[in-house]
Amino acid sequence: MPERARVRVAVGTPVVTYALIATNVVVFLIGMAWVGVQDGGAGITAALSGDRIAIHTSFGLRGFEVADGEWWRVITSGFVHFGAIHLAMNMFGLYILGRLLEPQLGPLRFAALYGASLAGGSLGVLLLQGDALTAGASGAIYGLLAGAYVILRNRGIDPWSTGIGGWVVISLIWTFAVPGISIGGHLGGMVMGGLAGWIMVPPGREVRVRAGATAAAGLGLASFAAALWAASAVTGSVLS
Domain limits of the chain? Predict the structure, then answer.
């Protein structure tokens, strides 16, 4: 029988996970305050239900705006959400996966995994749905999910025995079955998250924390650059 890799049980507070959750919540509250100043209580109620508001159009992802030089949308779109339910679902996924992965990877590699997944999700959006206004952390969350699957496999653990395998299947069904879901964002995040997980924890070998974080961060930067190219190519514009 093949030798099973030993798994180091790590402990510690997942500070990056909590910081990401806090950032997403603060951005959401800023958006609510913004629409409240503009439209009052009725605007806040509509925004909580998922209506498009100013923070979406200012920081969400759209190909032609990225192509016109608003490169930051590739990143900021991952911290903007359409309504309270959208935010809550993504933050729940981040909480569960962050508490699983960050203590094992450490904060550097976990942050690099999250960043690569976020950039990969934006790249997928721009390749498949570049003309749509897209926002949310789901691309990054799907990347964490794919990364968890790959890391467990490479450490000799069956992902299906942990529930991660089933979660992957359910998430893919959700992606294609529910209208209005960003297919490109979910798939792009999964691809880059899986690649980053493989880079950081290859099968049968140990990886130094700093080296793994650097490699995954490089993947994230490459995804970011590819997203800028995709925005320009899809829209036919020239980046300024």
Answer: 15-235
Arithmetic mean of pLDDT, 90-119: 96
Among the listed residues 143, 142, 140, the one whose alpha carbon sits nearest the alpha carbon of residue 76: 140
The DSSP symbol for 5 reads P
Looking at the predicted structure, is the pLDDT value of residue 6 above 70? Answer: no
Condensed to tens digits (0 to 9), the pLDDT of residues 55-85 reads: 999 999 999 999 999 999 999 999 999 999 9
Question: What is residue 208's predicted lDDT score, i.e. its pLDDT?
Answer: 52
CATH architecture of the region 15-235: Up-down Bundle (1.20)
**Contact present, 145 and 91 (Cβ < 8 Å):** no
- Measure the CA–CA gap between 21 and 16, rounded to whole angstroms: 9
- Cα(184)–Cα(122) distance, integer angstroms: 8
Encoded tokens for 182: 């960003």
Rounded to whole angstroms, the Cα distance separating 4 from 128 reads: 39
**Is 0.85 surpassed by the pTM of this model?**
yes
Category of 166 on φ-ψ map: left (φ > 0), alpha (ψ -120 to 50) or beta: alpha
Cα(163)–Cα(75) distance, integer angstroms: 30
Q: How far apart are CA 166 and CA 175, in angstroms?
A: 14
- Going from the C-alpha of 67 to that of each of 74, 133, 137, 229, the distances in angstroms are 11, 14, 21, 8
Q: What is the pLDDT of residue 233?
A: 85
